[in-house]
Design a protein that fits this description.
The protein has 283 residues and is an alpha/beta fold. 42% of the residues lie in helices and 20% in strands. The strands form three sheets. Strands 6-11-10-9-8-7 form a six-stranded parallel β-sheet. A four-stranded antiparallel β-sheet has the order 3-5-1-12, with helices on one face. A two-stranded antiparallel ribbon has the order 2-4.
Length: 283
């Protein structure tokens, strides 16, 4: 996550997280630290995984006090192990204490997503199928969670509703049919946008192909029906599989040869990676 993205897209979200945690003051820290004292604290990994979110972790402290210095011994995307010293934070002890939980919340959450995504992505190695995330993200955390998916070896589906046309079951219901929905999308959306259609059966597959959909998402279909759907599509549209895809069941999809497999579990079900700030002391 580069500096420009951080300032434009992330800083205000990080500030809101800090305001949530410190509505008026950090009463505990202010009780035990009456004045500024310089200190340092260790960033320690307590679980094996893939680290993600180090720039966000650092930014939390910088927004509290631009004089804070963060020294990192690894980078996003690196494999980390239990007990590893990943870095140190130097600065006013009051800032280190007040920013600790928010900084770790981001880093643990993002690293958990990267770790889980990596564990799923390796199951697709050797195929041309790309692993995608979804919009099933934590409110106000999307930019961080989708970034973590990329760090873990996955790819991003559309970022938000303004980013592309995806005609799902209720859109099709509102329009009246797959054909009408696709035609309406072609009439309204700029020609540079691809049109994706979610289908649930083979009749919908045929209708989506004939209507000229660019991408056809096979949602919650049996393996046999997906195989037949791919035959019907015959390369006339890109293909995507979705529907409760997890690390445990993705195996049934890997041999289909689809272009994409999307999984909401990458962001909504990944456990955190256990990380701590330890050994705080004055210097």
């Amino acid at each position: 996550m580069n500096t420009i993205t951080m300032k434009l897209q992330a800083d205000h979200l990080i500030m809101e997280a800090l305001r949530e945690d410190i509505s008026s003051e950090d009463v505990t820290t202010n009780s035990v630290m009456k004045e500024a004292v310089q200190g340092e604290v260790d960033l320690i990994c307590k679980q094996d995984g893939i680290i993600a979110g180090l720039p966000v972790f650092q930014r939390v402290f910088e927004l509290l006090d631009e004089k804070v210095k963060v020294e990192l011994y690894c980078k996003d995307g690196d494999t980390v192990t239990n007990g590893q010293l990943m870095g140190k934070v130097f600065g006013d002890i009051r800032v280190l204490l007040s920013g600790e939980r928010v900084a770790l919340n981001y880093l643990q959450r993002m690293s958990g997503i990267a770790t889980y995504t990596h564990s799923v992505a390796i199951l697709l190695e050797g195929s041309h199928t790309k692993l995608l995330d979804t919009r099933k993200t934590t409110p106000n955390m999307r930019i961080f969670e989708k970034y973590a998916v990329r760090v873990g070896g996955g790819y991003n589906h559309r970022y938000n509703l303004s980013d592309g046309v995806l005609l799902k079951d209720n859109h099709i219901g509102a329009a009246g049919s797959v054909t009408k929905a696709v035609q309406m999308a072609k009439d309204y959306a700029p020609f540079v946008r691809k049109i994706e259609v979610e289908v649930e059966n083979l009749e919908m597959v045929k209708e989506a192909v004939e209507a000229g959909a660019d991408i056809i998402m096979l949602d919650n279909m049996s393996t046999e029906d997906m195989q037949e759907a791919i035959r019907i599509i015959g390369g006339r549209a890109e293909t995507e599989c979705s529907g409760n895809v997890t690390k445990e069941n993705i195996g049934r999809l890997t041999s289909l040869g689809v272009d994409y497999i999307s999984s909401g579990a990458l962001t909504h079900s990944a456990p955190i990676l256990d990380i701590s700030l330890k050994n705080l002391h004055a210097i």
